[in-house]
Amino acid sequence: MAVERLGVRFARIDPVTGKAFYLETFGCQMNAHDSEKVVGTLLAKGYNQVETPEAADLVLYNTCSIRDKAEQKVFNRLQNFKRAAGKNKVFGVLGCVAQQEGEKIFDRAPHVSLVAGSASYTRLPEMLVQLEAGNRRVTGLSLDTDETFDTPFTRRDNPHRAYITIIEGCDKSCAYCVVPFTRGPERSRTSESVMAEARRLAESGYSEIQLLGQNVNSYRDPSPAGWDFATLLARTAEVPGIRRVRYTTSHPRDFTKAIVDAMDANPVICNHVHLPVQSGSSRMLAAMQRLYTRDQYIERIAWIKNARRNMALTTDIIVGFPGETEADFEETLQLLDEVQYDSLFSFKYSPRPNTAALGMDDKIPDEEKTRRLMILNEKQRAIQIRRNTELIGGVEEVLVEGRHEALGQWIGRTSQNRTLNFTHPDAGGASLLGQYIDVRVTRSGPNSLAGESAANVV
Ligand code: 5AD
Ligand code: SF4
Prior knowledge:
Layout: E1 19-25, H1 29-44, E2 47-49, E3 58-63, H2 68-80, E4 90-94, H3 95-101, H4 104-108, E5 112-116, H5 124-132, E6 138-140, E7 161-165, E8 167-168, H6 179-183, E9 187-188, H7 191-203, E10 208-212, H8 229-236, E11 244-248, H9 257-265, E12 272-274, H10 282-287, H11 294-305, E13 312-319, H12 326-339, E14 343-348, H13 366-389, E15 395-404, E16 409-414, E17 419-423, E18 436-444, E19 448-453
Parallel strand pairs: 1-2, 1-3, 3-4, 4-5, 5-6, 7-10, 10-11, 12-13, 13-14, 17-19
Antiparallel strand pairs: 8-9, 15-16, 15-18, 16-17, 18-19
């Protein structure tokens, strides 16, 4: 019986239901997808997934260290469960904090038994064997680049939209960013392997795929076919059954006109580009080691705006990077006016271990970062209110992703990546989840749209 092999740490486990694990995920889509691989692997090993850490024998946190706040979250979680640790629970820290802090985590949280970074998840089965044998210090921290991208055990969270990793790691060295240290150097997956996964997903009913990487634009097929990202994007959009292809995230330096051309040529590729700018000041961009100027960024924006299709544009901005003056910040505000983003993610600069910016002088006080963040967000909110109002009266195709039972509304997502909540004559009846529906926009807010099924409107 399975339970006999398990050793003391799992001695209380019900032999019928097997071993129970709980997994909480922080951070980006790469982490969300990694968690799907971890869950798939654990299920294949006979574990059950449970909803609370209390009900679990194995408690895992897949962590993010992009900003200090994200990193602190996991230590708070671990602190909360310190006392429960004596009661046969095994704790594991996975992901970016694991990679960054390594074995130091065992000192800071002695009840943790497993510390593993994302490049080591293919070794998870053998790490589980060690844990089950009672080993209290199991690590997977090598950033060896020979890991496989194949994910036979992936348990996807969403039945309609699937992530596909196309490139791991990052070779840039942005002065603020911890990712090259937590996810290692760039490794592209072969186009054959990506295409095979896309076909498999389409065959099993997925209609939307999202190509993932820290910098998808620097994708380079390692096989003789030698596809670049634009080619890979175009080909995945031709897979029968795939109705939407998205990709994230882009680095402006490697973003080519060929990508816009591929998007223009095939409406299966969603008309949304997320192009993180970080700052509107060329002086700040140089200090951040972003490898492009404001003018070069604007040139890429022009390609996107001059496309035949109407592309949505979103970005990431950091305020309060060391040395950022009021004039630099003003340039970022002007960039918002100039580009008219559909949405943006804004962050206060957070010093990270190992990064070049850590040693930079001229730190910006936290209150000043907060002030700049508020001004930025206020400006962007006004832009979004105006842009979303312009969509009223139009018809948008949505993929139905959820339902607000209390409001009697379906939750849809447009190709431009806007949330569009809508009513439908069948609202009480058959499920529309996973369907593509034309919706007429009737109302708008800063962050979403509302409407009714276009079939319902004469
Ligand atoms: N401080 C604040 N924001 C950061 N980001 C990355 N590193 C930091 C940091 N040290 C932001 C960038 C990036 C997004 C994912 O997170 O804007 O594009
Ligand atoms: Fe967080 Fe970056 Fe790691 Fe994603 S890659 S989990 S954003 S630190």
